[in-house]
Amino acid sequence: MNLQRLADKLRITPERLQSLQETVIRESSWPEPRLLRFDKTASGIEAGTAIFDNGDIIFGYPKIRRALMLRPALKKHFSDWVTVEEKMNGHNVRVTSVDGDVIAITRGGFICPYSTEVARRLISEEVFLDNPKLVLCGEMVGPENPYVPKDIYPTESMDFYLFDLAQKNCRETLGPRRTHQLAEEYGIRATRLFGEFPVDSAYPAIVEIIKDLGKRGREGVVIKDSENLVSPIKYTCSESNCRDLEAAFQYYSDYALDFFVSRAVREGFQSVEWQEDEEEQQKRAQRIGQSILLPLAETVKKKMDGEPITQQVQIRVKSLQTAREFEYHLRRSGIRTIFDQPEPDDDGYLVRITKLVMSTNDKTQALIDGEMW
After folding, report:
1. Nearest of 214, 260, 256 to residue 235 by alpha carbon
2. 31: CATH
3. Which range of residues forms the domain containing residue 16?
4. What integer pLDDT is reported at residue 5 of this predicted model?
5. Kind of pairing, strands 233-236 and 65-66?
6. Which one of 69, 99, 116, 346 has the minimum C-beta count within 10 Å?
7. H-helix or E-strand spanning residue 160
């Protein structure tokens, strides 16, 4: 593609584009179609931005900032009405059509073979025939999500939930109203819409929503400007923070320190803003403590008993080729796995996967053997 034309689409200079090609832009030649992807955010261009040979640019989905003190954040960030939607707990994908083929692009800018097969099963091609420039921004969730397996959603496998719309070659998203209109028009499952609220009275309504979601094992909410004039913010349930900690402490050496600290900090701010009394704080503290201690102790016990520390996930595919391609996709992403022999079922194959958690295995064994922290 012409360097000047591409730079113009990215809204940077050709000189800056050449510099980025040497530092943060990586080529991905598999699976087809070939693309260039931004390995990290640079010059205001989001990580995961994908540039295809035909000139199409699928910009990375903007990172959503998080509110810790919800009431002042609402008043400071929004000016009029807000739309409140459920925040799903899965992995972020952008689904679009390139040269007639529907593909699902991960947050990192890779084409995921498994997510692509799911997208082709769940989303009608008519969407892109009618809207060739459209990009569906959504979350893949369910118990057969190999990245974030969750059994809290009404599916036995993996579903796609639309949460925003974008267009090729455009950084801006289209906002909540257009998103839910299109979802209804084409029969696409969308994230739950709790409603629109005036900013001045939104806080108590959102707190009640959060408490109810927490009881049902859900993650939280995304709060959007109803007119799409400013970027959205997110706010999570205490129970979700604790489940994240529980999973992370099971594989404690494979997570960044900020993952642990940020969730603990969220709990402190939420407890104070909700004006919890001593009994409520004790319950929260106990919940957090159990999320830290119990999975960590279980990991140490397993290793002392000679058991490897692994994570078991599974996928359901129509084609064995999808399973083979997904195995390669995980390998190129740096995830070490063992794929069991596929098991035929009514509509394809069930594939059980063992993810090897190498750092936690090695670190735990070394500590058991007497190494220092």
Report:
1. 214
2. 3.10.450.740
3. 3-58
4. 87
5. parallel
6. 346
7. strand 159-167
